[in-house]
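Re: the 315-residue chain
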Amino acid sequence: MGSKRSESQGWKALDDRLRRIEASPHTISLLASLSLEGGESAWTKPAMLSLYEGQGDARTPELFFAELKELTLAVRSVEVEQRYAPWAPTTAIADLPASTLAPEAHATPALWFARWVGVAQRLGPMWPKVRGMLRDLADEAPVVSDDDEQGESRADTPLRSFLTMLEAIVESLPGRIEAPAPRLEPPRSADLREWEELVQTVPFGPLEPALRGRTISFPDGVELRFLRYPRMGELSWADGGSRLSFLAGGDPEIPAPIASTLGAYVSAARPALEAEVTGFVERCERAFGRFREAFAPELVARALAPTNVGRDGWK
């Protein structure tokens, strides 16, 4: 545990980098619009489900679209509050049923942008196939109107814009993160306390989206997965598994031998975990640059619109 303080300082440095991303309320409002219009199209979700089912993985697109929907609803709730009650503290996240977003008193646009990247990274392991499928779909999808003056061009369809958004914020990722074998030693009486300290080294807050949907694999076949809900994980093996809570205080009922085993795996995963979170922050920085470039006209138009919503409400 001697490196806990230096590791916390490392998380703080990454947290600061993430918060320095110059996203604005207009960035997040545009992300919500693109996600809602393109992600809710009659073609997108069924086609993506079919693609993943062919790979034996129907759960990834279900989680992706569920989390994307949650993000759009949360942002719309914040915007409504800021329009009609800008003097009131924003509580929209707490009011969402079964929210999987970590509570944040004043979530900045940079934090929201990181959440979008975290949800979209679920597509990373199959991104080349997903991108090719969406490109074909966008080319084949019918245009709403054939009137050259009134209708939108094929390049401006919601599905095409949704694809452009994903191309900006998604990068190819390995399906699994490799970690070394843990050192399993006989349990000691102090193991429970050390386990509770160890789980606090798992990043949270702004960095939590880095772990969403990611899996760390060990040489013996054991896997550590990070779940939808903040500070929740799962350690699984051939014939079983154990749910993990990375919350303050941990689980007071956990037996010392189990804490010893779980702690050994989480400890072995720490270098891989640090590399993954660092990579996530770098991906967010690159994604913001691509998104700002791809949607520069739309962002400028929103910034110049007379009805600016949320200008003072995104702390």
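Residues 292 and 299 are 8 Å apart (CA to CA).
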